[in-house]
Amino acid sequence: MKLNTKQIINYIRGIIWHACRAIYIFVPLPDDTKEKIYRRLSSRLTWILNSNKNDEVQNTSTYKEYIKELLNRENQGEINQYISWRENKPFGNAPVKILAFYLPQFHAIPENDAWWGEGFTEWTNVKPAQPQFEGHYQPHIPGELGYYNLLDTNVQKRQVELAKNYGIGGFCFHFYWFNGKRLLETPIENYLKNPQLDLPFCISWANENWTRRWDGMENEVLISQHHSCEDDLAFIEHLSNYMRDDRYIRINGKPLVMVYRPGLLPDAKETAERWRKWCSDNGIGEIYLAYVQSFDKINPDGYGYDAAIEFPPNNFYPPLISNLITPLDRNFRGYVYDWQTLVSFRERNALPSYKLFRCVCPSWDNTPRRKNESTVFLNSSPGEFGKWVYNSLADTCKRFENPDERILFVNAWNEWAEGAYLEPDEKYGYAFLQQIYNGLRKFSD
Fold first, then answer.
1. How far apart are CA 171 and CA 202, in angstroms?
2. CA distance 282 to 397
3. Distance from the Cα of residue 171 to its chain's centroid
4. Helices (H), 256-337
5. Distance of CA 205 to the CA centre of its chain
6. Residue 405: CB atoms within 10 Å
7. Can you list the positions of beta strands (E) in 361-436?
8. Among 28-32, 227-231, 281-285, which stretch is predicted with the lowest mean pLDDT?
9. What is the phi-psi region of residue 146: left when phi exceeds 0, alpha when psi lies from -120 to 50, beta otherwise?
10. Is the pLDDT of residue 15 over 90?
11. Which helix (H) or strand (E) holds 159?
């Protein structure tokens, strides 16, 4: 078959891109160093490293005008996707179970008081956030739930009511374990103790260091991980308290145990074997192990796991559009990407051969945490999010015949400091939640 010039260029671009990605993964440098190199190359070799972008983005002048027009229309109120609360008809049996990652850092703990100041919670960063460029949506102000405290059990009660009304099938709690020391566990313990909170749940171990930059890399470490055989067993024994609960999410009857970065374990496969044996010997039975593709991206068999889970925007490689925005301060050193390309990323790129659960992300903007060095995904909207949800539902049902494995994840329920949340806010109301429900209803019908 004879290739035209454009096809040849795209072929060469693909080879270079995959070579760069392989170097990024396998070169033995610290994660933060590799990230800096990647971002610097992204800004200089956009046509290579962002080869997945569509034709509209490739035409920089056209795209820049499109960005300006979109921001102007939104600022002038011409684009209004606000949706008020509505009571939805419940699903008898949803075609896909939608699980939302859930952050418990909305209450004060002594460690955060010492590291960040007395009374610190996630809201401490969210409230004072400021826009960094023209048209930048900041700060994000919560809707009906307000600046809540998760130690108030009424808050979790209302969260469960919201989740069930809009078709969310369960919460996936981020869990913080450091060699037996647990942080931010009280809301999860309260959830376990209250059977009236009848939404299913599971645990995802965020097994990386806590750092002052909020990225888990080797910068200023606040509390570190020290993995060992003994710690493996202590962790799974503690987790069994949750796995024994009737609400705990199971796949094929097996409790779902998730790990954020298994590549940080000394030997993830040996750890998996220890966990499986302990659970088998102590009345839990078989477990279903999955890992989150936040940094790692290999066949889960390599870790002795059953499946992997997408975690957008990580590992989605959107086009960098920092040169198309107008900073409000010359000290802005952040990175701006195009969120809309995430919507069709999976449709443009083949899924791997191993078992991979899809995940969608309503938006992303960590300005509250990183200030003028933030990473911002521009152009997110409830309408486009709804398309992503529907396409992911269809793909999930197509690939998984087993109803137990028809699962779609959302990043996230309440990551307010990273701009990734389904909870209602002042700008969109319940729009992102409603898109979840609309997608499920449309697909069911």
1. 7
2. 34
3. 13
4. 268-281
5. 14
6. 18
7. 364-365, 375-378, 407-410, 414-415, 420-421
8. 28-32
9. left
10. no
11. helix 153-165
Tell me the C-alpha distance between 61 and 285, whole Å. Answer: 59
Number of Cβ within 10 Å of residue 337's Cβ equals 23
Whether the CB-CB separation of 229 and 275 falls below 8 Å is answered with no
Tokens of 240: 């069994």
pLDDT band per the 50, 70, 90 thresholds, residue 347: confident
Tokens for 339, please give them. 């969120």
Q: Which tens digit of pLDDT belongs to each residue from 154-168?
A: 999 999 999 999 999
- Cβ–Cβ < 8 Å for 170, 200: yes
1-10, 237-246, 341-350: least confident range? 1-10
Return the DSSP state at 238.
H
What count of residues does the chain have?
445
Q: Which residues of 360-393 are buried (b: 16+ CB within 10 A; e: fewer)?
A: bbbbbbbbbbbbeebbbbbbbbbebbbbbbbbbb
Helix spans in 253-308 (H)? 268-281
Bond preceding residue 412 cis, omega within 30 of 0? yes
Question: pLDDT digits over 104-152, tens only?
Answer: 999 999 999 999 999 999 999 999 999 999 889 999 999 999 999 999 9
Q: In what order do the strands lie in the sheet with 364-365?
A: 335-338, 375-378, 364-365
What SS3 class is residue 174?
Answer: strand
Q: Where are the alpha helices (DSSP H) in 218-351?
A: 229-243, 268-281, 340-343, 345-348
Q: Token match 């409230």: residue?
A: 127
Secondary structure letter of residue 349 according to DSSP: S
